[in-house]
Predict the structure.
Amino acid sequence: MNVNRRQAMGQIIGLVGVAAGGGIMATAMAAETCPGDNAIGVGSDGGDLGANLLTYVKVDPMAVAKRAYEGYGRGGCMYGVFDAIIKELAAQGHEDACNFAAIPTNMTVYGGGGVAGVGSLCGCLNAAAMAVNMLAGVDRTKVIRSVYHYYESASMPRGDAAFLTAIGAPTRTDDAGELLTPDKIGQSVAKSVLCHTSVTLWSKASEYGTGHKAKLERCAQVTAEIAYVTVDFLNKAMDNALDVATAAAGNADCAECHGSTKREPDVYFGTDVNSQMECQTCHSEHDVSSGLTGAHADFTCSDCH
């Protein structure tokens, strides 16, 4: 005999009520306010992936940042950002609150360290895109690209006293037992969306080894910062007031020759790049009209094209 989740819940409630009385019965009944047999949506029926999005309501970026800082210690950067955004939305009591509450946020733990320590896409960004992509009422692509470019170009962690006080940081100490304050943690610009680049450049700037607790404190604060920025951008997008860069300004020059095209071999002359990431992080600029510089010095056009 097949028993659906609601029937199973009813049977469990009956058994619990007989065994333990009204107190636990009330708890079980409260669980029924978020029935488990409701589809969360987000394209789960295999149809239009944009047809079943969840309703976004404005939330406090600082409250999300605090959750994210604390969440980093439990499950890493991806979990910290994703859990904070989803739990804060679930706490608002709006029409999709139960759907947000049903999302198993611990599924994002894999993203720590750039996906299981591989050092690829930073878990903070992985989480931000995952959360934003299920939300209705905002320009999802613009928000995601804005967050990613912020990560590439901002000096992080922000380290201002008001922000750190609000999120309850720092909590980790150096070898002398002293709190890892902003003057010790320092700042760096990631220049990339990759975990290994971001952490390596921070380690170089701070002179802390990546196995030190300072790295954990730095990444916990970056987790809080990206959670804050993601929600801030979402709130602005709700008002059609998100006016920030989504890519480095220099990318436009590169795209003149290296943008995505439909060229076939007989007219193909340059390497196509289908990317929004900052070009100059890995590639030196070159002026084809006045000679090549940097990594392209002494090359001729035919060496690449």
User: Anything to note?
Assistant: Residues 1-31 have pLDDT under 50 and may be disordered. The radius of gyration is 24 Å. The CA atoms of residues 170 and 181 lie 6 Å apart.
